[in-house]
Amino acid sequence: MTARVEFSAKIQGAPVLRTARLELRAPTMADFPAYRAFVTSDRALWMGGPHGAATAWAWFTNDTAQWALLNMGGLIVSHQGRAIGQVALCHNPEFPEPELGWFLFDKAHEGQGFAHEAASALRDWALGPRGLSTIVAYVDPQNAPSRRLAERLGGQIDPAAATPEGMATLVYRWSRA
User: Fold this and answer.
1) Residue 58 CB coordination number (10 Å)
2) pLDDT score recorded for residue 147
3) Cβ neighbours of residue 121 under 8 Å, at least 6 residues apart?
C-alpha cells in the first residue's frame, strides 16, 4: 500500500498581513524568478550586489526557512495578485538584532508608497502580535531612499547599537510603545 502525500502551500508560522492595497504573504516558488532578478541586478547595490543566482537562492530559502525556525522571515509584497517586492523580519546569525528590511523588485513600483505600506504592516506585526520589544533596520549610510523610508516609518538612529561585523551601517530602531 502506498502512502498518500499531500503538500501544503502554507509555510509554518508565516502570517498573511493585509493593508489597504497589499497582501504580505509567505514566498512561493513562483516568486523566485522576480526575487532572483532583483538580487542579481544593480538594484541590489545596497545589499552588496549584484550577486549570483546561487546567492539569490540561498537568501530566498533563508528568508523562507526562518518562519519555521524563528517565527520571522521574508514576506512577499503582492499588489493586485502580482509579487512586487519583499519585506522581511530576519535574525540571521550575522545580525545582532531582529532586522526589518524591504525592497521592491523593480523601479516601476517605486514612489507609490508600497514599501512604506508593507514595512509599516510588518513593523506593527513584529512589535504587536509577534511580541518583540524592539527591532532595527541596518541601512547603508549612502542609501538615501532607504534612510528616508526608515525615518518616515518613525525609526530613530541608535548610535550605540551593535552592527553586523564588517558592515558600514546606520542602525534605525523601533520599540514597542
Assistant:
1) 13
2) 97
3) 17, 18, 19, 22, 24, 87
Distance in angstroms (rounded) separating the CA atoms of residues 19 and 17: 7
Q: Mean pLDDT throughout 48-69?
A: 93
Task: Give yes or no for residue 102 having a pLDDT over 80.
Answer: yes
In Å, what is the CA distance from 41 to each residue of 38, 50, 52, 94? 5, 5, 9, 23
18 bridge partner residues = 23
Show me where the domains of the chain are located. 20-175
Architecture of domain 20-175: 3-Layer(aba) Sandwich (3.40)
Q: For residue 47, what are the CA distances in angstroms to 19, 43, 113, 159, 168? A: 26, 9, 21, 21, 11
Give me the mean pLDDT over the 105-120 stretch. Answer: 95
User: Grid coordinates representing 46?
Assistant: 545596497
